[in-house]
From TrEMBL:
This is Aminopeptidase N. Its cofactor is Zn(2+). NCBIfam families: pepN_proteo (TIGR02414). Its EC number is 3.4.11.2. Residues 227-438 form the Peptidase M1 membrane alanine aminopeptidase domain. It comes from the Bacteria. It comes from Oricola thermophila. Belongs to the peptidase M1 family. Keywords: Aminopeptidase, Hydrolase, Metal-binding, Metalloprotease, Protease, Zinc.
Length: 876
């Protein structure tokens, strides 16, 4: 296939100043009439053909300046309309008619139907499935959209901007006209038409304008949109208070649909959401669902400034809007919840999703330089690492400098399609800082490694720390120059918290940040009386892998004494991971005791310490997952060994802490009615982790069965059911519980997704048969991305022992599923393929099986560009 390269970027020859669209909606034969006012860019030769993008389009009519062009004046194919015979004037109009079949569109890109509702998805290149266009983000146009439909089918007609007109037509049809005054790229276009319920509210902006807020959901589900509405209002307020960003239209709408490739989409004034990120009540949603809804509502809303008002020049700049907007939603959630708890959760996710991507065959820079399918670059690297890079800018410049830089960026580039260079430049110009070396973070793939060694000299009272950075390029030939890495730190003394120093040399140190810029720094602190323990990378100030020299004793010391709460968690997590990794290297009969006494004692002291927040204690008590241990081991992975260690570790802690866990479980019984707030969620999290340890310690799930029966909310219910299914899959209690859950929720697809996932992630080789059987269950559908992800995605990415069966059947199953899905929905199929991204780290037997399965898929004659791209890179 063709590779698109950053260095080949050039502006389009033509611009489209205004775009008038008229839709006549019919389920299988929708007509789209587009009237484009086209302008030739200054300096472009008058006879330059106008080349418009299409994708599976049929041209039904064409006029240029009101006239039908001669047959040899243009050529039309499904993916391109070339008008060779263009008028000599600088501006002219082009009218295009296309005909679509939204009901047959299973790719869920362009105009499609979800449960009868017409909706659109245009990012990245879906608009070209609606009409021929300059479908690229640097072509900004003012849209006016007229929608006509049968009133009975679609009483609701929505598009971007403000509604300027609506009314009745003949024969039971009606229409509405929407105008969006803000020029926007085509990927932000949206249309929704259907029969939906609505929740309304208002928000008064900081300058006193009243904005109408509307959330559209299936009829009957309106009460479940209350939390999303609340999160929206809090997001709007927070963006005004934190970044001075005010909403700009008179109306802001969100529509929830059940068939959606992604989480949600930030279309101007008309966000479209996967319904699982809108709908919640205590009966159907877990605390994690509520937290996701809050974060994603905020994320899409924040795009209004970072993405919509200032968009990307080209898709290589995707992190310009995504990294920055993820950073903004992280900060929002941190302010709404507990900052440390939120940061720990982010770091865990980053390490679980982005680190393996950056270490494997799918590694790419935060700003990639080439792609063959842009849909495959909506990745953890672009989003999550992209956010970490923005966070480092703030760490380097400080709060004030960061805000000044961002203000300048908004001021300079409002209404434009911008680049990473322009973003960086705004921070440099606002603060005088030099970010040239820092900018390498956007271009160099891979996770830098930091190794540290230190010594203390009592005589001269000197503490010396040697820090080396090394970047192992995951891609052959990728650049790996030394980076500017901000390391937040403290020197922790035995008695009195962080120590002060009288002088420091060997690296620039500002406040509590060491700035690494060289491959190796020897940092010397003067005036240090006693040997400190260095607490490094506080708050995870850079996305690097730290190899601390610290002995277990020093980590244990930090886990108890680091004045920084994040630092305590990080030390404990490092210690625990290290001991689990060591246990995996021992023979089977020598790994019953995974942790030493002191480590067990630290766990229990945290568990019992009521001065900590519940949520923080729950996070500290959560062991690294099996995939985390695998990542730490690095190569020749045997998932069965890791699973055995994980089980042994849970049993050991469960026994060791039985009294404390029993006290927590019984002492934290729900008091009063359910509330999704962070404090209540933390309380449930701690109680549920105590329940897990009690079950593991006693090897008995009776308590989980009781908890399942008594649960009055989905958080507790799903947790108890998971314990039953994962610890005692074949007991009557478990079978009854699964049945009860299914009976209650069989008509609630997004709740049934949990039922699928819980079963798909049950450890052990047999689960593959369960998963295969579940694909035949009523309620499962290959056409719905949420169902596919809940069952097949969860199995392949979240069930290390089941998926990595030694006989390779798990890999075969995944590759067959991808082959089956690919014809209908290549985007979702390609995403499933990423479960293979770490296959080269497996032990040789499984590695071979994985290769065979992928080669089998690769031999298929008709793979989509999406799957072909991921498969080729993964196998390379
Ligand atoms: N732009 C969407 C988001 O991340 C995804 N396509 O918000
Ligand atoms: Zn986004």
């Amino acid at each position: 296939g063709t590779v698109i390269r950053l260095e080949d970027y050039r502006p389009s020859d033509y611009l489209i100043d205004t775009t008038d669209l008229a839709f006549t909606l019919e389920p299988e034969a929708t007509t789209v009439r587009a009237k484009l006012s086209v302008r030739r860019r200054a300096g472009v030769a008058p006879d330059t053909p106008l080349v418009l993008d299409g994708d599976e389009l049929t041209l039904a009519g064409l006029k240029v300046n009101g006239e039908t062009p001669a047959e040899n004046g243009y050529t039309a194919s499904p993916d391109r309309l070339v008008i060779g015979d263009v008028p000599a004037d600088e501006t002219f109009t082009v009218e295009i008619e296309t005909r679509l079949n939204p009901s047959a569109n299973k790719q869920l890109m362009g105009l499609y139907r979800s449960n009868g509702t017409y909706c659109t998805q245009c990012e990245a290149e879906g608009f070209r499935r609606i009409t021929y266009f300059l479908d690229r983000p640097d072509v900004l146009s003012v849209y006016t959209v007229r929608i006509e439909a049968r009133t009975e089918d679609a009483p609701l007609l929505l598009s971007n901007g403000n509604r300027t007109e609506s009314g009745r037509l003949e024969n039971g049809w009606h229409y509405a006209v929407w105008h969006d005054p803000f020029p926007k790229p085509s990927y932000l276009f949206a249309l929704v038409a259907g029969n939906l319920g609505v929740v309304r509210d208002t928000f008064t902006t900081m300058s006193g304008r009243e904005v109408a807020l509307e959330i559209y959901v299936e009829h009957g589900k309106e009460p479940r949109a209350a939390y999303a509405m609340d999160a929206l209002k809090r997001s709007m307020k927070w963006d005004e208070e934190t970044f001075g960003r005010e909403y700009d239209l008179d109306i802001f709408m969100i529509v929830a649909v059940s068939d959606f490739n992604m989480g949600a989409m930030e279309n101007k004034g008309l966000n479209i959401f996967n319904d699982k990120y809108v709908l919640a009540d205590e009966r159907t949603a877990t605390d994690a669902d509520y937290a996701n809804i809050e974060a994603i509502i905020a994320h899409e809303y924040f795009h209004n400034w970072t993405g919509n008002r200032i968009t990307c020049r080209d898709w290589f700049q995707l992190c310009l809007k995504e990294g920055l907007t993820v950073f903004r939603d992280h900060e929002f959630s941190a302010d709404m919840r507990s900052r440390t708890v939120k940061r720990i959760a982010e770091v865990k996710l980053l390490k679980a999703h982005q680190f393996p991507e950056d270490a494997g065959p799918l590694a790419h820079p935060v700003r990639p330089r080439r792609y063959s399918e842009i849909n495959n670059f909506y990745t953890a690297t672009v989003y999550e690492k992209g956010s970490e890079v923005v966070r480092m800018i703030r760490t380097i410049l400080g709060e004030d400098g960061f805000r000044k830089g961002l203000d300048l960026y908004f001021e300079r580039h409002d209404g434009e399609a911008a680049t990473i260079e322009q973003f960086i430049k705004a921070f440099e110009d606002a603060t005088g800082a030099d970010l040239a070396q820092f900018a390498l973070w956007y271009d160099q793939p891979g996770t830098p490694n930091l190794t540290v060694s230190s010594h203390h000299d009592a005589g001269p009272k000197r503490f010396t720390m040697t820090i080396e950075q090394r970047l192992t390029p995951p891609i052959e030939g990728a650049p790996h120059a030394p980076m500017h890495i901000p390391v937040k730190f403290g020197l922790v003394s035995a008695g009195s918290g962080d120590m002060e120093w009288t002088a420091v040399s060997g690296a620039e140190v500002t406040g509590d940040v060491i700035h690494l810029r060289e491959p190796k720094h020897t940092v010397v602190f003067e005036g240090i009386n006693e040997r400190p323990v260095a607490s490094l990378l506080r708050g995870f100030s850079a996305p690097v892998t730290l190899f601390p020299e610290a002995e277990d004793a020093d980590l244990a010391f930090l886990a108890r004494n680091d004045p920084d709460e994040y630092g305590r968690w990080q030390a404990l997590s490092t210690l625990v991971t290290r001991q689990m990794k060591q246990a995996a290297a021992r023979s089977a009969d020598e790994r019953g005791e995974v942790f030493d006494e002191e480590t067990c004692a630290i766990f229990m002291d945290i568990a019992a310490d009521d001065s900590y927040e519940h949520a923080y204690r729950a996070l500290c008590l959560t062991m690294p997952g099996e995939n985390d241990i695998a990542r730490e081991i690095g190569n020749d992975i045997d998932p069965d060994t890791i699973h055995a260690v994980h089980r042994a570790a849970s049993r050991q802690l469960g026994r060791f802490g039985e009294r404390i866990f029993a006290r927590l479980f019984h002492g934290l019984e729900p008091a009063g009615s359910y509330s999704p707030d962070a404090a209540s969620a933390g309380r449930r999290a701690l109680r549920n982790i105590a329940l897990s340890y009690l079950c593991h310690g006693s090897q008995d799930t009776a308590l989980a069965a009781k908890a399942f029966a008594q649960a009055d909310n989905m958080t507790d219910r799903a947790h108890a059911l998971t314990l039953l299914v994962h610890l005692s899959p074949r007991t009557d209690e478990t079978i009854d519980a699964l049945k009860a859950f299914q009976d209650e929720f069989r008509n609630e697809p997004i709740v049934m997704d949990k039922w699928f996932t819980i079963q798909a992630t049950a450890p052990g080789a047999e689960t593959l048969e369960t998963v295969k059987a579940l694909t035949g269950q009523t309620g499962f559908s290959w056409d719905n991305p949420n169902r596919v992800r809940a069952l097949i995605g969860a199995f392949s990415a979240g069930n290390p022992t089941g998926f990595n069966r030694p006989d390779g059947e798990g890999y075969q199953f995944l590759c067959q599923a991808i082959g089956r899905l690919d014809g209908a929905n290549p985007q979702v199929a390609a995403r499933l393929m990423t479960a293979m991204r770490s296959w080269k780290n497996l032990e040789p037997g499984r590695r071979e099986m994985a290769r065979k399965a992928m080669e089998g898929l690769s031999a298929r004659p008709r793979l989509s560009r999406d799957v072909r791209d991921i498969l080729d890179r993964t196998l390379a």
